[in-house]
Amino acid sequence: MDGKWINYADHLEQAVRQGKGVDPLTSLDPDLTIQDAYQVQLINIDKKVKAGSVIVGKKIGLTSLAMQQLLKVDQPDYGHLLDDMVVENGGVIPFSRLLQPRVEAEIAFVLKQDLIGPHVTALDVLLATDYVLPALEIVDSRVADWKIKLQDTVADNASSGLYVLGGKPVKPDAVDLTLVGSVLYKNGEIMNTGVGAAALGDPAACVAWLANKLFEFGITLKAGEVILSGALSAAVHAKPGDHFRARLAHLGEVSVSFEG
């Protein structure tokens, strides 16, 4: 294992210990590659698993064209979901758990079969999915002021924070996920709207991308895992006391609040 990866993983963990963001890794090492960044991510995930956390799924980021253009990339990224990142629907989050949170509305897939790359298709994903749910992802960054490039967010577990699952289970063949509309509210006010097709044209295609990408690291998507398939619209800044609610057509509602 490359010693610099370990140092970079610890650098990001400093943000958690100190409660404030750190300098981006790309400012410390302009030659940091995306493959390096995934190794840094895996080091911190392995630490957390050894400390007792359990991997319960994955999240996909940068699925919208706008975000890819912003970071000057042509592909999504992914991170790991751990059991201690789950917040119950309608729950209240202590703001001290996060550094600089933003909230996104997404479609979550819960698998009933393993998905093994490298040739997974969107149809394979639908066949392997037990049900889908509306979700809120609370993204967060250990990098100060969100001054990130692709390598920074990859190393930082794809800027993962917490997530909430809501609604009621819907079979994937009961709805056209590309046409599912979403509305995200903050304190009762509409912040943005979106549609399933905003995520790489099809949320199931996002999950297929993930399964195929994970093949490069010898990782398989497992039955029972939760997959957050990517934001349907822009992330919205959260402050203490804020309440967020998302309505997704045919899938229901999901909500969360932040302590004042």
TrEMBL record:
The keyword Iron-sulfur does not apply. Pfam families: FAA_hydrolase. Keywords: Lyase. One of its GO terms (cellular component) is cytoplasm. It comes from the Bacteria. Residues 99-254 form the Fumarylacetoacetase-like C-terminal domain. InterPro entries: Fumarylacetoacetase-like_C, Fumarylacetoacetase_C_sf, Hydratase-Decarb/MhpD_sf. One of its GO terms (molecular function) is 2-oxopent-4-enoate hydratase activity. This is 2-keto-4-pentenoate hydratase.
